[in-house]
Structures
1.
Amino acid sequence: MSLMSNTSALFGKELRTEFRSRELLTTTVIFILVVVVLFSFTFDPTATESRRFGPGLLWLAFLFAASLMLQPCFLREQGNDTLSALRLSVPDPFAIFLAKLGANTLFLLLTEIMMIPVFAILYNVPVFRVFPQLVVVLFLGSLGLGVTGTALSAISAQARMRELMLPLLLLPLLTPLLIASTEATAALLDPKPTLRWDWLAFLIAFDVIFLTALWLFGEYLLEE
Amino acid sequence: MKKDGLFAFVVVALLGYSAYAAFYIAPDEKTMHLVQRIFYLHAPCGMTALVAFLVAFVGNVGYLVKRENKWDWLGIAGVEVGLAFCTVVLLTGPIWAKPAWGVWWAWDARLTSTLVLWLLYVSYLLLRTMIEDPDRRALVSAFYGVFSFLDVPLVYGSIWWWRTQHPQPVVFTSGGLDPTMRKVFYLSWVSLTLLMVLLIRKRYELEELRSEVQALEREAEA
Amino acid sequence: MKNIGSVFAAYIIGWAVFFLFYVSVARRTASLRADVQRLKDSLNKR
């Protein structure tokens, strides 16, 4: 299918661009680390407290990191007007969005997986016994971040004060995702870990709804 | 113009009567007594805010599909009126909560959801101020409006489910509604809905006029 | 009557929000109507 081949070509381009310098990945990982460490000064880091506050703080850190990391997504296509070139290169503009959100989701997921061991050590929470399930939760959450963040990045690139507008637009929208991801993660880090299918289903619904909306209306955001 | 004045008069009269009903006709509630009467303003405002946001959603989708300015006007009118109703919910909630339960804010599911919605749609308004070109502004805010409205059920659902897992005793309803209470509630709801229609129409007219002024100014410069 | 003050406050504050919104919109509408009239007059004079 033409959409898939166009998307994978653009996706490859996004990956190559990032892995050439890796600057986005490294700065994002360090940012999450800084936030997580700073958060630990706001409460008494005993085992029970860490289990109570840890998952929420972790996801908040991911949300903040995403709202910063997604800034360049469409901004860097404005210099040299590469966005017009992209638009001309594919028949379906949705391919551009799919490629970018795929890349963003992957980058977010990678940074989150890198952070998990650090989080486990700093907060004394057992993560390795539930690592596969945790990755599922991280993936679904990151997909939601990727879909909404990529769409809103295209929006904020057209506004003034874009550095502040992206977090401002993104964070209230992500409230349901924050709640669902935190609850699912907390359940996995509990002494008796459980996989919360209700919250996972909710995350899937969140991802599907916004992906569909992006598919239906996204191309209008890329218009001249 | 006269029809407008008549409609406004009817709305104000109905609102006055529904307030009278809330104070004098509605029976006293068992546990909270007098303070519970705030319910007749608080709860319908919440529902009407959602209807206003639905109107805005229709405007947003309409603009994305049709690209006629009148849909954009409907969108902004719906959002601003919806925010006004949300504000009333957020102000009357704590006024009810403090005497009834001793706390200003208890993170009750509906009130918390309304707070998130308020933040979401305030961001919509802020976004509009950050884009100068009117066509771009209409297009971009229409898209964000669609995303915001799709988030509404997700916000309510997630916060409600979250609160169910960690319940608290504050409940902003009137328990089982006795028939007289129900009638007062519906009266209040109808009058607030008519108020919403009135406010949306006035706000829409304002945008329409603004567009007319811009067109005339362009003609004057030519 | 306990808490009658709260009920009054709630209704007055609620109505105040709607009233302020209405007044703000009505004022801007009137000013724009005046602008429309002024511009139409000046175009007619041409």
2.
Amino acid sequence: MTAATSPLPTAQFVAFVGEYLRFAGDNADELLALTVEHFVIIVQAIAIAVPLGVLLGVLITFDDRAATVVLWLSGVMMTIPSIALFGLLIPYFGIGQPPVIVALVLYSQLPVVRNTYVGLTQVDEAAVEAGRGLGMSRLERLRRVQIPMALPVIMAGVRNAVVILIGIAAIGAFIGAGGLGVLIFDGIDHANVPQIVVTTVLLSALTLAFDYGFALLETFFRLRNGEEIEIPRGYALLTGGSQ
Amino acid sequence: MIEFDNVTKVYDDGTVAIEDINFEVAEGTTTVLVGPSGCGKTTTMKLVNRLEDPSEGTVYFDGTDISELDPIELRREVGYVIQEIGLFDHMSVGENVATVPELKEWDRERVDARVDELLELMDLPPADYRDQYPRELSGGQRQRVGVARALAADPDVLLMDEPFGALDPITRENLQDEFLDIQEKINTTILFVTHSIDEALKMGDRIAIFDIGELVQYDTPREILRNPKSDFVRDFIGSDRTLKQLQVTNVAEVMREEVPDRYQGLVERERRDDIVAVSPTDSTQVALSRIIGADTDALPVVDGDRIRGVVTEDDIRQKRAVTTGGV
């Protein structure tokens, strides 16, 4: 009764995962620090991008021609490779985080502006007409009727933007912005597969976490607007099972 | 209260919506604008809260040319109800009703008290409905909230654009009846747009009948039924003009107060509850239909516990002959 010549599949699996787990264990501090750094870059970019995008989205509802131009331009932004955009921004913003944050803000405009514009123009016309007839000024209609009713759609745009940004921010490490991208570039340089895999898994987890968080917000706004939707289990859990 | 003086409205694309309209709406009355679609009745109404401005002529509000009033301020003094209701779905029923008082920056307590008062008036008990959301309500309830919202800041004038048009017939009739009661309590000047002549006859103190872009007759319901000014009006009223006349005439107008001997037995039987009766506020249409239904020629008129007199089939026939000049 000698041992099998090849290890059992589970043993193989443990050896395979073990390598990654060992890497994650040995570098936990650095991984955490870079995840936080990545997180902070994203939060800064969103903090600028969302107000800017919503403002633009609101402004272009006043003028159809401006809407066409702005939506076209923000669409064009998406076609520029991030590496090229960083290169274009370095002369103005230097290297490190500033050019990356500017680039992230530019990339997030298409989903945020488009969803704000669509959300506002799709608001129930009767409600807007009633608001007008009851003596709301244009701004009061925006603030009290259109924006609250469009919030779920705007939130969906923000969610979309964040998912794009987390990936692009990783490339920012190339010009010294830090974040989880640092480990990926380093892993490529040293052919360190566990490092690349573990970092990528973390990036995906970060993306999913943001995505889920914003999905919950969107659900909250939809429910508050009285929309009849199926309540996601996570939402029910967070709110104690009730709406 | 509201006066249209030679008002013409031509839209930017050249469509003439209304031409040379003249009429006056007296304070505290309900005036119904009625006509086929595209006749300009809604445009006429929108001139009052400046959702449209006249191309020519002047609209006066309480003697003031409304083009001199700030449209936003004006609209807060004029209630507005539309067929699509247009409730704000993201706000509770209470917040919807509070819209105009909040725009006018009333203090919190006054707003809350007013909201409860109106929900009560609209037969939507505040405790049950204030915190509900519009999508949880039925069509009829939603339009009640729409009317409450329009009345919230106690407007001098209430504009209603086919308010009951999208409701099913039973709900519509109930709301019409309730609104007639409410109308008496609030004493507001009402301008009401509909395409249904029946609704106009039921709701209006006065009726303005529109043909394409022009006002063809402006009169009381009875006068319109008695003397339609043109073939258009006659056609618009329809072939059941006689029935409609019965509808706008009360039993009180045709009943006899003294009870003739031969009806004494009838009154006795009414006391014993084995015969149908009518009330003085019922229409003669109701009375006639009950007379026919009961296979008799007269009915007692009962007001609460009191027998006020009788109404006979002959009386109803004769009254009609008098008012229509025998037509």
3.
Amino acid sequence: MNSLERIMAAVRFEHSDRVPVVAQVFGHAAVLADVPLERYVRDGELLARCQLQALARYGYDAVFALMDASVETEALGSRLNYRSDIYPYIERYALDDAANIGALSVPDPRVQGRMPELLKAARILRREVGDEVLVVGCVLGPMTLAMQLLGAEKTLFLAIDNPDLFARVLDFAVEIEISFGLAQIEAGAHLPMVFDPSASPAVIPPQFFREFELPRLKRLFSVFKSAGAAASWLHIAGPADAIFPYYPEAGVEIANFDYCVDPLRASRILPRTCLDGNIKPISFVDDAPEDIAAESSRVLRLFKGRNGLILSSGCEIPPESSPDNVAAMIATSRLESQ
Amino acid sequence: MKNEPLDQLVDALLEGDQARAVAEVVGLQNAGVDNERIINDGIEVAMGRLDAKCTMEQFNLLEIMLVGRAVMGVIKTLYHDAPPPATRGTVVLASLEGDVHDLGKNIVKIIMMAKGYRTVDCGKNCPLEKLVDTAVQEKAAIIGISGLITSVIPLVRQVVPLLRARGLSQVTVLAGGAALKQSSADALNVDYVADAVFDGLRYLEGLPGETA
């Protein structure tokens, strides 16, 4: 059984040779290869090479064509500040005033900003791993992209002060993500993960998620599935259990669950949705391999017999994590399956 | 009016309805209610109820921001754009160098101002030296560090030693935010890691002598 088959078995709740492990290694792959983050997030070929090196080192089940949370907004005109050792951040938002949303148009992923580099990364990764390992692309969810276009504070106040205009911004975000996600699938990604940290109940109330996010996520996943995405993967960190009840309606097949979510509660709310999580990300920096192994064992034990689990960190493994800690999570999955 | 509870104002604040809260305050002022009472029986009561709500239910930024905006509207009306008179110590707030997220910090600033603290905001992406210099200049009782990315952790660990080197060993250092709250006070070398703003306030209010 190869990595892709193992993950797809978990999605379908079928038995496999071992629980799949997806370490959410993004910038950590650059640190491992001694490559500045700035170069990693700007050069698709380099990103793919670092991802492949990390895959060879760790032997987990998925690679990521994923740069950072500013790819889309940069393609729409936001100005970023690049630093060698941290992810780029937005210096000037593409949208000063949401009322000007009509002046923006959906960027062409083949030519605008770093989108072509991300597509290049997906293409190389798929060419190199074929259907052996899951190639994961990434698009932002509507709420997160709206905040990346307009700024967090303005977006949240807009949602209350002018819900119609806010809905237009979200709809525009969906169009961008459809275009970008389809291009990723065409380039070779098995699926574009939808990354939407700003839709977490830590940011917006669950009722707000239901009204504004749910219908749009539903549309995104439906379009991606029709285009051949292997599965619908939603990544929302934080206390997302409050919105888990909406996931099946959105079409979510793989649901990220963060360290602060009780695994058994997640499993109860989503009995037929594959869960990926939930080792505390900071543990990969602060703790020792035996701590990671113990925590991995705990998660595996809690899900024993369930099948629908991908062992993972609750969110991104911090770039500065100890490689021995990352390796400990993968080793535990192998050991516990023997 | 003099002894009646200011329920309408409290409700407007808790609903995050800035326009209604400001209208209530104007009405109260016209009825002869003084600023101190509006703060104590209006804003403070609303803050207490918000604290209880955040303890009982899921804390979310949107609701807190709306309440914060309404509170700021009331404070502006009361003090004509000047900061409200501080009844507690000075708190210096920052997101450290490399961290450009400041939504959480801005909320902490508003809530602490509403609770009577004098707040000094060093902004986001703040170098350590600037934070410590500001704490010295402003005679800070508290430093609050908000962190959304783990890469600032090595900087957070340096804050207390740098303060001590400048003779500020009495300053209470609090950390919070999605990345920092995964860690412990010992690991971050700070006095307390707050799960949310009201958790931090409770810690400060429990300190002996409450310099805070």
